[in-house]
Amino acid sequence: MTPESDQAVLDFEKSIVEIEEKIEHLKVLAKDEDMDISKEIRRLQAKLTRSLNQAYQNLTPWQKAQIARHPNRPHCLDYIKALIDNFVMLSGDRFFADDEAMITGIGSFEGVPVAVIGQEKGHDLETRMKHNFGMAKPEGYRKAQRIMDLADRMNMPVLTFVDTAGAYPGIDAEERGQAEAIASSIEKCLQIKSPLIATVIGEGGSGGAIAIAAANVVLMLEHAIYSVISPEGCASILWRSGDKTKEATEVLKLTAQDLKNFDVIDEIIPEPLGGAHRKPEAVFENLRKVLRRRLADFATLSSDEIKKQRTEKFLEMTRNLKIVPATQVKK
């Protein structure tokens, strides 16, 4: 196992990986030595399935956060390759520069022309640096707005893939109006009359995520997370300590299951046993089926009805808010 792959093994997955390595070793041995060890391989595969079930049926919020951030998890460009035909990437915000953390373009989903927007984290050091770890700058959010305007003019549905720890917090981004760019992107999501479907595929962090997720339909993968702040950031503010990250993860209620209960998201996309990073093709197919069904729901709606439905969706969230007085918040 290489150092990079070793780092990709989560703490609670170590015993699972050990079993997988034994199975692979036996398969190689059987091929090289012409041995029949199929019975032992079947035994280990059964043990592997039991171990996966045991581990993934009782995940804590912190473990889900680790899975959502898994370096081998499929990212935006993987979903585009799997789901979008004839994809043409569109670059630049027409004001300052192109932001490669934000992927935008047009293509077709099962024959339907669509606009695509998503955050790309990258898979290795080179691509992570290229895409700035999925943290967009103002030009990224302005590019997203440009594509939403294009989709609105062309009456194309917009599909977004959310996967970011948050917007880039650097001084240069602040100097170029990061807060305004995010706010304008949220506003643009609510203004367009084309259907907008957002999918949280990994980590949905802060305003950097909702800037492309104020959608008619918000989908979320089973082991993704979606929150106003990262667990680390929450721990540093509430407890002034990085040691409380796990506790912060519990408090934030950032799992797909919690957010579905709060009606913040509309549907949870099942992941294969062991997470999306183990069988990407399975999660691609699961998402394809849901996107097909959800897009069909807009076929009978007018553009004004589509916009009104999206607006009412978010207004309804505010009507159900319960404000807790500061004096009742536990320190």
Structure notes:
Helix 7 (138-154) runs parallel beside helix 9 (178-191) and helix 11 (231-238) packs across helix 12. Strands 1, 2, 3, 4, 5, 6, 7 and 8 form an eight-stranded mixed β-sheet that branches. The chain is globular. The protein starts with a helix and ends in a 12-residue tail after the last helix. The chain has 331 residues and is of the alpha/beta class. The chain has helices at residues 3-7, 14-33, 38-56, 61-68, 76-83, 125-130, 138-154, 171-175, 178-191, 206-210, 231-238, 245-252, 256-261, 280-296, 303-319; strands at 85-89, 102-109, 112-119, 158-164, 196-205, 217-221, 225-227, 267-269. It is built from 15 helices and eight strands. It is 49% helix and 15% strand. The protein folds into two domains: 3-58; 66-319, 2-enoyl-CoA Hydratase, Chain A, domain 1.
Count of DSSP helices? 15
Number of strands: 8
Q: What sequence of helices (H) and strands (E) makes up the elements?
A: HHHHHEEEHHEHHEHEEHHHEHH
CATH architecture of the largest domain: Alpha-Beta Complex
> Which radius of gyration do the C-alpha atoms yield?
21 Å
- State the share of residues found in helices, binned by percent: 40-55%
* Main beta sheet strand tally, sense and closure: 8 strands, mixed
> How does the overall form come out from the CA principal axes?
globular
Q: Spans with pLDDT under 50 lasting ≥5 residues?
A: 1-7
CATH homologous superfamily descriptor of the largest domain: 2-enoyl-CoA Hydratase, Chain A, domain 1
- Strand percentage lies at 5-15%
